[in-house]
Design goal:
- The complex is a heterodimer of chains A (593) and B (721).
- With 593 residues, chain A is of the alpha/beta class.
- Chain A folds into 4 domains: 6-95 and 186-271, P-loop containing nucleotide triphosphate hydrolases (Rossmann fold); 110-172, no CATH class; 303-369 and 503-584, Rossmann fold (3-Layer(aba) Sandwich); 381-500, no CATH class.
- Chain A has helices spanning 11-18, 33-46, 61-73, 86-98, 103-106, 114-125, 155-171, 177-190, 192-201, 215-228, 255-262, 279-285, 319-332, 347-360, 381-389, 395-414, 424-433, 441-455, 464-486, 495-500, 542-554, 581-584, and strands spanning 22-27, 53-58, 81-85, 110-111, 138-141, 144-147, 174-175, 202-207, 233-238, 266-271, 273-274, 296-297, 308-311, 340-344, 366-367, 508-512, 521-526, 557-564.
- In chain A, α10 links the parallel β8 (202-207) and β9.
- The model of chain A has no long low-confidence stretch (mean pLDDT 90).
- Chain B is α/β, with parallel strands linked by helices and 721 residues long.
- Chain B has 4 domains: 2-195, no CATH class; 235-301, no CATH class; 436-643, no CATH class; 650-715.
- In chain B, α21 (557-577) crosses α23, α23 packs across α24 (612-622) and α28 (688-698) packs antiparallel against α29 (705-715).
- Chain B is globular and about 120 Å long.
- The termini of chain B are far apart.
- The chains are: A alpha/beta (593), B alpha/beta (721).
- The A-B interface holds A 50-53, 82, 92-93, 96-101, 106-108, 191, 193-194, 196-198, 200-201, 410, 413-414, 416, 418, 420, 462-465 and B 52-53, 56-57, 86, 89-90, 92-93, 95-97, 99, 101, 106, 118-120, 123, 146-147, 149-151, 154-155, 181-186, 188-190, 192-194, 200, 343.
Chain lengths: 593, 721
């Protein structure tokens, strides 16, 4: 039986872990949500008496990897665990095993590469002047699809683009991420047995970040729970205050609704002790608490004299100087670079900023999801393989690389390669033994792929899906590098830079607000807090959306929080951006600089 | 859960065949080379954990030879399971991977091994135009075994045994018709990675063994060690601790034995003397090396068995072969029992030819008792003794069908009452009915005794060599057994040979008839009538069944036999039947009278006196190669056997020639000349037609060497001389 040091969990957390019934857990920021989820999974895995599977659904693949690693570190056997995103869940557990019952999927299908999808939409948007592929985000519900774009004037055009898009996908037997959900839903709806079988296979279904879950995803989950009649337990965890994906259909379902639809007893619990931030930070982001969750300060930084500043005077042309100043002050105060984070609502704001920061702070390293120079389509086989090829063998990375190797071997098996003699160790050994004299990152990878397959006596060209993945990987990477280089990151094609991507985080994080979900830093510096960006001009209920974004970004900070609404940023024919109204309306005694 | 159906397509010697299985004990019966081992291997490819590697490495030779060119074809091994309880969570994963949702109760599952060309090749085939045979040939000739992939699928709904289904998925290579699709939902969904079927089920395979003692001596195959190993892993270290201590003490005591020490000292001294101090080893000791670990200690355990009552227990190699086999089988069964205790969703025990292991007496008891309620047992056999134990419902028969083999289920589609009567019949007569390549059903002892003798005398071949079993039904209830031979069941030919019982004397009642004559005529009339009725009934029964045909003796076997020109053979038995000279003389006269009523009457009288069976034995002794086989029996043999092959014909003719000439020295040149022709026939240089003409000529009583040469020049030319 898995046991833990009593100091590992507080009583709220421990109660949730050992609770035998299903749980709906509201967790305030910094309350050890991931830790609780991790221990819960480990606890249930260790109690596993039959062959049923514990399923955990996370918002990102990265979160899944992290949780799995943590459970392995706890010394718990994870062979009975399936963990991944809702999309991989639908693929693995519904579409692959039951797709033969869905006429659209029965004769084969493939999941479209994100880059190809972008290109296709771009092409289809071309005839419509006002519409770009950014506008074409949509999400499905049980009744059909909804547009992410709130600008109703564009809707006609977008619907036309999407109609052509769906037609093209279906003609080429491709599905995108939303269609994965849609087909999973129709299969479950039309074949009542699926939910019954799945409910017997799963002992637990755990869902992380429920507040960003969409109606159709809830419905899939609820169908299984209903079919299980209490045999399948659930564990729902998240924070309704942090629901920032409303424009894509995500919402925090009220516990009463969830319980009623699941038809099983579900206990409501809460994690209310914030271990992350100082009291001052907590009192600040509590201003944006729209769900009245209770938050108690309980961490080591509780009494830390935090600085919370708000600068709405700096001109947008000087914002980089201000960022550099704040970073330097933070560094001087003894904060390590990896504990500093620069946030902005939109990626386009960050692109030029990162470039300038890199130039202005040449001694510092910067790290952010946007700085990955190659295709980061985590479903792409070659992306998975490049993770191994771009990392060195070290005891610290061994567990992780073994898992990556396992993923690669599993994928090869799915592509029809005979993998009976390929072990994780062998794959890693062959990868480590490669010696490639090439400084250009993409050429390096290309050569590495070729050499490795030669070493393994495999010819990728015998497996068309492998070749297709390879092409998609390189095309998408090349265009990404081109874009980054145009933005001034001339170094980005170097293999040395490629290798940084999978290293442990070392530098200052630069990210969008959506991109730091779940992360925490000593110092958080946010700019671009402008009405129209925070909230996004598309948002229907701007005040609530803005509050949630501000809640999320503020609650990332342990010690210091610096907010900037720069002036003079041009908004085209609407003049210039003004500060976020919800922020301006917030009464708080900020620190002066 | 149990296997209910196994379909093999293009696998080894099976082109397309289906076996059916039931809960409990199942039998696969077949002659040598009919593919019994291949069936077990196919099952193991899907369910045996030790065979997974082999499943991914099928070879060219795994393709059925009847395919001709294997390139492009698929091998499919498809298994269906039934009686899956949905309640048990242990089966949940299995069902998730394999259950067919079409069955609303989720009680059926399918699991298939499919060996097919990789997608790349399938795409090429799918792109072919109809009748584009050149392109097809080009694609096929480039295909190697490396272009193939093995996939395991579940929840298929295709009936792979239907050639049309196979064609619709794989394609029609004859006319070059291929679907444009390369993925087919009918073949099911790939089994998810989380499910390893071989790990979910437990399967024990007991191979047919020729040398059990060697198995016992091999550490890898010794079943005792396997059992001990599984137990040694469970031993509590605390229990083991005192034993380990004792072993250590024992080692020390042995090492400290005075004699051991003195040997050690002697070695040292001798080395020093021989090599000198400088070159001698620095130290040297003798150590006792009894192992301390449980697993190694267990390896030193041996089984001793007392076979007789003398109280002596011997090692395995001292046992009788049968005894050793019994022990081997017992240990394997125990291994199976241990396996069953694991959390598996189904237990399978495959036994190859148990007759190789154990004596017939034990077999029956064994299979009566072995039936664990939660295990399915499948065994192959060519022993009639075991098949007699098995339930005919649970039997699969393998039969050769030209270049490939097929499986038949003898009880398919029969009423329970029909099955019961067949079962009783099989139990009672220990019949080799199920093994035969073809069958002649006869109604009594006489036919059973005489037909094999007739065949042997005339053709020089035994019925066994012809692959014909003559089965005595001991009544005219043919239908009970003949029902087995049917498109749905055993697809082998079965000839029914019976008597029409037409009267062979005038049965018109005359006013002058004495009472015994009246009774005789009435009885004969009755027989004649029921004979006709029987015929009508049988004719309907066999109509439209290509596997059945009826052949009637006009009267009865004895009468038709004597009427067919065999009266001299009967005449020779007369002195053995009668002692009285007058009766003997009268009998011979009657037999030689040429009048059917008298000949037949006398033969039947003699048969009645001796008892029909004994009379047949008497008669058998008198038969010569010149005996005439009654026509209806000839026809029955022809039907059952089918066309005679050239080598078989050659052998028959050889026999006839020997009969004709061997006793006649003057015919030696002719004899040799004929043999030459026969050899030419064997080498396929001359046709049967030509040979027939030559035979006809030679067998004329008047043929001489000179007339032969003349004939030969005319008919064959001089090529062969």
């Amino acid at each position: 039986m898995f046991t833990w040091d009593p100091r590992d969990l507080n009583c709220e957390q421990a109660a949730a872990v050992v609770e035998p019934s299903s749980i709906f857990l509201i967790a305030c920021p910094g309350s050890g949500k991931t830790r609780t989820l991790t221990y819960k999974i480990a606890y249930e895995l260790s109690r596993r008496a039959d062959k049923r599977i514990v399923v955990a659904i996370t918002y990102t693949r990265r979160a899944a990897d992290e949780i799995q690693e943590r459970i392995e570190d706890l010394g718990v056997d994870t062979s009975g665990l399936w963990i991944g995103t809702i999309h991989s869940f639908c693929l693995e557990w519904i579409i692959k095993p039951y797709g033969i019952y869905c006429p659209v999927l029965a004769h084969g299908y493939c999941v479209i590469d994100t880059h190809d999808r972008e290109l296709m939409l771009e092409r289809l948007c071309a005839p419509y002047r006002s519409v770009t592929h950014w506008d074409c985000d949509y999400y499905v519900s049980e009744t059909g699809y909804y547009l992410g774009c709130q600008d109703t004037r564009k809707h006609d055009a977008i619907h036309k683009v999407l109609a052509a898009y769906f037609e093209e996908l279906s003609a080429s037997r491709q599905i995108d991420f939303e269609l994965i959900l849609w087909h999973a839903h129709t299969l479950m709806r039309d074949q009542a047995h699926i939910a019954v079988l799945l409910s017997r296979v799963f002992s637990h279904v755990l869902v992380d970040e429920y507040q960003d879950t969409k109606q159709i995803q809830y419905s899939l989950l609820l169908t299984i729970l209903r079919a299980g009649r209490g045999q399948t337990k659930t564990f729902i965890v998240g924070d309704p205050n942090q629901a920032i994906y409303g424009s894509l259909g995500g919402y925090a379902i009220p516990v009463a609704d969830f319980r009623a639809q699941a038809g099983i007893p579900i206990k409501e619990m809460a994690l209310s002790r914030n271990y992350r931030s100082s009291k001052r930070i907590i009192s600040y982001f509590s201003n944006f608490n729209v769900h009245a969750t209770s938050i108690k300060s309980a961490g080591e930084h509780a009494v830390f004299p935090s600085l919370v500043t708000y600068n709405k005077d700096v001109a947008h042309t000087d914002v980089h100087d201000e960022l550099v100043r704040l970073i330097q002050v933070s560094l001087a105060a003894g904060n390590t670079p990896q504990n500093i984070c620069v946030l902005a609502p939109w990626w386009i704001l960050l692109a030029s900023t990162t470039r300038k920061l890199v130039a202005m702070l040449p001694d510092q390293q910067f790290d952010g999801p946007g700085l990955v120079p190659f295709s980061n389509d985590s479903d792409n086989f070659w992306f998975k393989l490049s993770k191994i090829l771009l990392t060195e063998s070290s005891p610290r990375l061994l567990v992780r690389r073994m898992r990556w190797a396992n993923d690669v071997i599993k994928d090869l098996g799915d592509f029809g390669v005979d993998t009976t003699r390929l072990t994780q160790r062998k794959l890693l050994r062959e990868c480590n033994a490669l010696s490639i004299d090439e400084t250009d990152g993409l050429r390096y990878l290309d050569q590495a792929f070729t050499d490795l397959f030669e070493q393994l006596s495999l010819s990728p060209e015998n497996f068309p899906p492998l070749a297709a993945h390879r092409e998609a990987f390189f095309n998408s990477s090349a265009s990404r590098i081109e874009r980054l280089q145009k933005a001034g990151a001339s170094y980005i094609n170097q293999v040395s830079f490629f290798k940084k991507v999978f290293r442990e985080r070392t530098g200052i994080t630069v990210s969008t607000i959506h991109g730091v979900k779940g992360a925490e830093f000593d110092v958080v510096i946010a700019f671009g807090l402008l009405e129209g960006m925070v909230p996004h001009f598309n948002e229907a209920d701007g005040h609530v959306a803005a509050s949630k974004l501000l809640y999320v970004l503020s609650s990332r900070a342990r010690k210091h929080l610096h907010l900037i609404s720069e002036t003079g940023r041009s908004r085209g024919r609407y003049g210039v951006y003004t500060p976020t109204e919800s922020l301006a309306a917030c009464h708080f005694i900020y620190n002066s600089d | 859960m149990h296997i209910s159906k196994l379909t093999l397509v293009n696998y080894r010697n099976f082109k397309n065949t289906t076996l059916r299985f039931h809960k409990g004990v199942n039998t696969i019966i077949g002659e040598n080379g009919s593919g019994k081992s291949n069936i077990l291997r196919a099952i193991r490819l899907l369910l045996d954990d030790t065979m997974v590697r082999a499943a991914y490495r099928l070879e060219e030779s795994d393709f059925s030879r009847s395919l001709g060119q294997w390139q492009g074809h698929w091998i499919i091994i498809s298994m269906e399971f039934e009686e899956i309880s949905t309640d048990e969570s242990v089966q949940a994963l299995f069902l998730h991977g394999t259950a067919t949702l079409a069955d609303t109760l989720l009680r059926k599952a399918t699991y298939n091994l499919i060996f097919r060309p990789k997608k790349e090749i399938r795409l090429k085939l799918a792109a072919l135009d109809i009748f584009d045979e050149d392109k097809l040939a080009e694609i096929r000739s480039a295909i190697t075994i490396d272009d193939y992939e093995t996939i395991f699928t579940g929840r298929s709904n295709a009936d792979f045994s239907a050639p049309a289904v196979y064609e619709s998925i794989v394609g029609d290579f004859e006319s070059c018709v291929f679907k444009s699709e390369t993925e087919f939902p009918e073949i099911g969904a790939k089994v998810p990675g989380f499910l390893s079927v071989t790990k979910e089920v437990s399967l024990t395979f007991i191979q047919a063994l020729r040398d059990v003692v060697a198995e016992f001596h091999n550490n890898r195959t010794n079943p005792l060690l396997t059992l001990l190993k599984s137990k040694s892993g469970e031993i509590n270290p605390e229990t083991m601790q005192p034993i380990t201590q004792m072993v250590r003490d024992l080692n020390t005591s042995i090492e400290n034995l005075e004699d051991v020490q003195s040997v050690r000292n002697h070695i040292r001294e001798t080395i020093k003397d021989a090599a000198g101090e400088t070159y001698s080893p620095a130290s040297l000791s003798i150590k006792s090396d009894l192992p301390e670990e449980a697993e190694k200690l267990f390896q030193s355990l041996r089984l001793f068995v007392g076979e007789s009552e003398e109280g002596y227990e011997g090692a395995i190699h001292e046992l009788s072969l049968g005894g050793a086999n019994l022990i081997y089988l017992t240990l394997k069964l125990l291994e199976f029992k241990y396996q069953r205790e694991k959390l598996s969703i189904a237990n399978f025990l495959l036994i190859e030819e148990p007759e190789a292991h154990i004596h017939t007496h034990i077999q029956k008891t064994l299979f009566d008792r072995i039936a664990y309620s939660d295990a399915q047992i499948i065994y192959t056999t060519h022993s009639t003794h075991i098949s007699e134990v098995s339930n005919v419902n649970n039997v699969n028969i393998l039969g050769r069908h030209g270049s490939f083999c097929e499986a038949y289920q003898p009880a398919t589609g029969l009423e329970p009452s029909q099955v019961t009567s067949i079962q009783r019949y099989l139990d009672a007569v220990r019949s080799n009915l199920l093994f035969a390549k073809s069958v002649i059903l006869v109604e009594g002892d006489v036919e059973e005794i005489l037909i094999p003798v007739l065949v042997k005398k005339v053709l020089g071949l035994s019925v066994d060599e012809l692959g014909i079993s003559v089965i005595n039904i001991r009544s005219t209830g043919f239908k009970n057994v003949a029902v087995l031979f049917h498109d749905l069941r055993i697809r082998k030919r079965c000839a029914i040979v019976t008597d029409l019982d037409q009267a062979f004397f005038d049965i018109t009642p005359l006013p002058t008839d004495a009472p015994p004559t009246v009774a005789k005529k009435v009885k004969a009339a009755g027989s004649q009538k029921s004979g006709l009725e029987r015929k009508a009934e049988l004719d309907v029964f066999v109509a439209e069944n290509p596997w059945l045909a009826t052949f009637y003796a006009k009267h009865t076997f004895e009468v038709d036999f004597v009427a067919g020109g065999n009266h001299e053979a009967v005449v020779k038995t007369v002195p053995k039947v009668y002692k009285d000279a007058a009766t003997i003389e009268e009998s011979i006269k009657a037999l030689q009278s040429g009048q059917l009523a008298r000949m037949g009457g006398r033969t039947l009288t003699m048969a009645q006196k001796e008892g029909k069976g004994w009379f047949a034995i008497l008669l058998a002794d008198q038969l010569t190669p010149q005996v005439q086989i009654p026509t209806y029996i000839q026809q029955a043999i022809h039907f059952a056997h089918g066309p005679f092959s050239r080598p078989l014909l050659s052998r028959i003719l050889q026999h006839r020639v020997e009969c004709r000439f061997s006793s006649n020295c003057s015919a030696a040149p002719l004899h040799a000349a004929f043999r030459l022709e026969l050899e030419r026939f064997q080498r396929e240089e001359i046709s049967l037609q030509t040979l027939k003409a030559a035979v006809a000529f030679m067998l004329q009583g008047t043929s001489s060497m000179r007339s032969w040469r003349r004939w030969r020049d005319v008919h064959l030319g001089s090529a062969g001389s």
